[in-house]
Amino acid sequence: MADTSRSPQPRYGARPTMKDVAARAGVGLKTVSRVVNGEPGVTPDTERRVREAITGLGFRRNDSARVLRKGRTASVGLVLEDLADPFYAPLNRAVEEVARDHGALLINGSSAEDPEREQELALAFCARRVDGLLIIPAGRDHRYLEPEIAAGIATVFVDRPAGLIDADAVLSDSMGGAREGVAHLIAHGHRRIAFVGDQPRIHTASERLRGYRTAMAEAGLPVDESWVSLGPTAPEHVRAEVDRVLSGPEPVTAVFAGNNRVTVTAVRVLAERPHPVALVGFDDLELADLLGITVIAQDAARLGRTAAEQLFRRLEGATEAPRQTVLPTRLVARGSGELPPRPGA
Question: Which pTM value belongs to this model?
Answer without folding.
Answer: 0.81
